[in-house]
Write a structure and sequence with these properties.
This protein has helices at about 1-40, 60-70, 80-85, 95-105, 120-130, 155, 170-185, 195-200, 225-235, 255-265, 280-285, 295-305, 320-325, 355, 370-380, 385-390, 395-400; strands at about 45-50, 75-80, 110-115, 135-140, 160-165, 225, 245-250, 270-280, 310-315, 330-335, 360-365, 405. It is an alpha/beta fold.
């Protein structure tokens, strides 16, 4: 009887061990099975940023760079012309041009046209459900609606809002203001003579310049460039050993859709696009004492942010020399048919004489008939509306921008 009892206990222990072992193995299997999806690639974090992106500049580009760093994919909403007009005044650049500009920024993955100026509940739900957006991003500068409310209040309320640092020293309002200086200072009797106003703007109407004097020189800019900012905008990669390097140069002032499209064509002709950006002095000498509107470093950052550009020469020479072609191993030099200074073929000192003689020069048909003067004319022809737009800033926004000298932020 004792033996039988011991055998029964032993059998029970063995059975219990098998049962426990089986359960452990079973749960382990189930755990492994349900843990498998965790080993799959995580869904990318998608962030959304919107804006007017009118008179797009390096400050916009830096905002998009910072927004992209907060996620894996950046979706950008471009506000419609009608919404901008209702909330701020008429845009300088129409929606189609603004979409070209935003799409060309190297940190942008997707663009939503005709986005609303304010984040409504319906549009926010659309972003979350249809576009799989995780966070809505905006700068730390105020975005106040005409009724005085915060345009991003709803996103903040649901905890899906993240903030980035505004790039100090530039705004579309500031750029328009630089051009409107000549409008405000012209003689009152010439109030509607736009052609005269345009001549004033391009050829020396007195205005304060960067060096503190008047006359020639880029208008006052509060932007202080740093090497870190240039590194942040750069690709950081040079051409391969057998790369076909294409070179294009210019002022690239008030960087616009016409610039973007010619750079896109140029990039398609080779493996590496090198862009030469002329100095402020060179631009002034060839295009009038009040050009450029943007200084050399501002223009360089705008070009560097373009996805079609691989490298820039900051302060490129006016003439493309044999030494320059050899140093940078340039295979092809190109120039667009639409430009401010397309009389170079008639000049005695043709800046492209060397590449033409070498048989490596190509004139590209420009996709868009837009120049920097086109942008200036748009503002000059409707300067009263843009003056009102500039004055439409709230008192809090004015305090935010006034009387500051800025160093590039993060």
């Amino acid at each position: 009887m004792v033996v039988d009892g011991e055998n029964a206990q032993l059998s029970s222990r063995i059975l219990a061990s098998w049962l426990i072992g089986g359960l452990v193995i079973g749960f382990s299997f189930l755990g492994f099975r349900f843990a498998l999806p965790k080993n799959k690639k995580k869904r990318p974090i998608r962030v959304y940023m919107d804006g007017c992106f009118d008179m797009m500049h390096y400050g916009h580009c830096n905002a998009l760079r910072q927004a992209r760093a907060l996620g894996d994919q950046l979706i950008v909403g471009v506000v419609s012309d009608a919404e901008i007009t209702a909330n701020k005044g008429p845009p300088v650049t129409p929606l189609n041009e603004r979409i070209i500009m935003v799409s060309a920024v190297k940190w942008v993955d997707e663009v939503i046209p005709d986005a609303p100026y304010a984040i409504t509940e319906d549009f926010m739900r659309k972003l979350f459900d249809e576009y799989n957006v995780d966070y809505i991003i905006h700068g730390d500068d105020p975005c106040i609606l005409p009724d005085g409310t915060d345009a991003y209040a709803l996103a903040k309320k649901v905890g899906r809002y993240k903030q980035i640092k505004r790039t100090e020293g530039v705004s579309s309002t500031d750029i328009v203001g630089r051009m409107l200086l000549c409008v405000r200072e012209r003689p009152t009797g010439d109030s509607h003579n736009h052609s005269s106003l345009q001549r004033q703007f391009s050829h020396g109407h007195s205005q304060k310049s960067e060096d503190g004097g008047s006359g020639s020189g880029t208008r006052v800019s509060h932007f202080l460039p740093t090497s870190r900012r240039i590194v942040q905008f750069s690709n950081g990669k040079g051409p391969g050993p057998d790369a076909r390097i294409v070179y294009i140069d210019g002022a690239f002032d008030l960087f616009h859709a016409g610039h973007v499209e010619i750079l896109r064509l140029a990039r398609g002709l080779g493996d590496f696009l090198l862009v030469g950006i002329h100095t402020d002095q060179t631009v002034s000498a060839n295009r009038g004492s009040h050009r450029p509107i943007m200084n050399l470093h501002e223009r360089s950052l705008s070009v560097l942010a373009c996805r079609y550009v691989d490298e820039v020469i900051i302060g490129a020479p006016w003439e493309v020399s044999k030494d320059m072609i050899t140093t940078f191993n340039i295979s092809l030099v190109v120039h667009g048919t639409v430009a401010e200074d397309n009389d170079f073929l008639k000049e005695k000192q043709n800046p492209y004489a060397v590449p033409i003689d070498l048989g490596i020069f190509k004139l590209l048909e420009s996709p868009l008939d837009i120049t920097t003067s086109t942008i200036i004319r748009r503002i000059v022809s409707n300067h009263e509306a843009y003056q009102k737009r500039n004055e439409k800033k709230s008192e809090s926004e004015r305090r935010y921008y006034e009387d500051k000298t800025y160093v590039a932020g993060d």
